[in-house]
Amino acid sequence: MVKCLMFCLSWLLMVLALPVQAQPQAPAIVRVLEVQGAISPATADFITAGIADAEAAGAHVLILELDTPGGLDASMRTIIRRMLSSQLPIVVYVAPDGARAASAGTFILYASHIAAMTPASNLGAASPVAVGAGLPGQKPEERSGKKGAEDEAGRPRDTMEAKVTNDAAAYIRSLAELRGRDADFAEAAVREARSLSAGEALKAGVVEIIAPSLNALLSELDGREVTLASGQTITLAIGNAQVERIGPDWRHRVLAFLANPQLAVILLMLGIYGLFFEMMSPGAALPGVAGLICLLLGLYGLHMLPVNWAGVALLCLGLLMMIGEVFLPSFGALGVGGLLAFVLGGLFMTGPNVPNYYELSIPFLVSVGLASAVIIIGAGTVAIRSRRNKSVIGREAMVGERGRVVGMEGRVVYAEIRGENWRVICGEPLQLGDEVIVTAAQDLKLRVEKVVKADAGTTRPQSA
User: Interhelix angle for 250-258 vs 261-280, to 10°?
Assistant: First the structure.
């Protein structure tokens, strides 16, 4: 018995002495969001949702693969606010080769925990270029009514331009100081529209890494320390990381497609066209349904942009005035006034917060306005003329037709008209063989007048 206990104890000690095999560690997760094109409300929604999904999925690093010419200020600030509150490290990687992080993209790059670029990329030119936009040839002091500060070249700047430029410069400088990057270039990118190549940006301390590929970037990131918004400093351990690449889904693509004032104006026009043709041809259904859908899509596209709604109202008023030209004898006053209102509304619609590539140009507005005038006035005039013409089908088409009385049943009289027997009503007695002419249609009967032969051999209707 003692020997048996000793054997069991020895066996147990041998088992405990065996090395414990470590459980395999799950690979790190790296999310890559593909961000291309202008920064719009759809882009802001895509990035903020991507950060939230990456945090919920337990990703170790989120990489924004960025290539943008810039975009809307409001969308840019929404993205940056979410990046600054992120609970995981965010890397902005200007890629692929030939990509750029211009204007709003420079701000987003400065807000990242780690900034990286491919060798053949660039950043900068972050000036608010659409500030003080007005009519062509208008001087800054004429737009604002008073002069502000002068720029570096001694040119006068209006007060609004100076305010927005100073605000943008202070904003990007605060981001540079938060991330420990070159603040002087950041401010120069706003005030002087300066740009840097990837190599220059690395030397100036604007970015931390130059990597020709995503794999090279992951190798450079492995082992780096990052301080999160909570103050916690973590060391990136992303060797053999599992990369999950995510691009915009169909919803974000549709939103990005609609977030364009030129497209929104065209949709508004198509919507008004559809409703106009539905009014001209009641019951057609298709023009009205399609027009209503286009109208709502156009309004939604404008809702996503910082537009001046007074300009939108003026634009719609111009279209309505052109429609009014069809119905009212204004001798062209409504049509010309509508065209002018349409062009001015388009110019006033895009405010100073909309970049230049989102603005509605005068050639675009004039060409679209002329096309609208031709379509609405031309098609409307043709439709009204066709309404005034004599009907060629139905009972109304029988008016003016001649026939002959072919049957009488008591007080009911039948006449053959166009090869058909019709029940007719006349204000005087009729006899078999009398020639009649239709004057009106009443219910399922025709009102006729008796045709009396004149002495000259001609005939004329006899009034009842």
Answer: 80
